[in-house]
Amino acid sequence: MHFNPPVSRDRIISTFPKCYNPEACLQMKDDWDAKTKTACKDRAAHRYDRLKMSKVVVVGDLNVGKTCLINRFCKDVFERDYKATIGVDFEIERFELSGLPFSLQIWDTAGQEKFKCIASAYYRGAQVIITVFDMADIKSLENTQQWLMEAQKENEPNSCFVFLVGTKRDLLSAEECERTERDAINIATEMNAEFWSVSSKTGENVQEFFFRVAALAFEHSILKDLETETSTAQIGDGSILNDKALEDAQEKPKKKSCC
């Protein structure tokens, strides 16, 4: 019998994580969907003790802080010496949500033009797209829509949660941060994305952000499984046969013919 290893205490999510700013939010709610809660309680019937995983791709310009963002959450470190990502890299982070195991496979893609062809192949099959920009570099915000388009081309329409994340907020004054966030919220609305403002250096909002990503991806995965189960039941439960069809299907005893 397979048992999932225990999850770190700081990766247990018991309540639905809140959004950063209601003006740019994917879902305005403060609790799990009723169907999700029921399914989590009836985990044995739905076989939810098996490991579930969602793929996350992180895209954006060179030097906007994609790797630092991932490392701050996954390893709780911040490295001042910048090393550009070559091609792609990934981390797997394990959670427990509503008592069930869940993992995010977080892909860190290169921001350099020469690696775009390599990175694009890893966009496929994503459930979450995180577009990152440097809050101290407004040009990187303008480029996020192009990054999103390239990532979405490799996936089915409307199949991914989209997040717009501004990094390095610690470099801005309160007034500059507020002004940049207003611009970012406008872009996020056009992208149909949820906006977050974080600092990988101080860790501000980083854990809250990834908890939000995990919660939305987890719930989407549960609801998608429920839809699949319902569709399968409708196909195989025999309800497409009406009473007349059932009567016709019953064969009457055949008379024996004389030779």
Overview of this protein structure:
The structure is a single chain. With 259 residues, the protein is of the alpha/beta class. The protein is built from nine helices and seven strands; from the N terminus they run βααβαββαβααβαβαα. A hairpin with a 2-residue loop joins strand 3 (88-97) and strand 4 (100-109). It is globular. 35% of the residues are buried. Residues 235-246 and 252-259 have low confidence and may be disordered.
Order of strands side by side in the largest beta sheet?
A: 1-3-4-2-5-6-7
Could you say which overall geometry the principal axes of the C-alpha atoms support? globular
Helical/strand content category: alpha/beta
Number of DSSP E strands: 7
What oligomeric state do these chains adopt?
single chain
The major sheet is characterized as:
7 strands, mixed
Please give a handful of descriptors for the protein shown.
disordered C terminus; 7-stranded mixed beta sheet; alpha/beta; 7 strands
In short:
The protein is α/β, with parallel strands linked by helices. 37% of the residues lie in helices and 19% in strands. The longest helix has 31 residues, at 206-236.
List the helices and strands and how they pair.
Blueprint: E1 12-13, H1 34-41, H2 43-46, E2 52-60, H3 66-74, E3 88-97, E4 100-109, H4 116-120, E5 128-134, H5 138-142, H6 144-152, E6 161-167, H7 174-191, E7 194-197, H8 206-236, H9 243-249
Parallel strand pairs: 1-3, 2-4, 2-5, 5-6, 6-7
Antiparallel strand pairs: 3-4
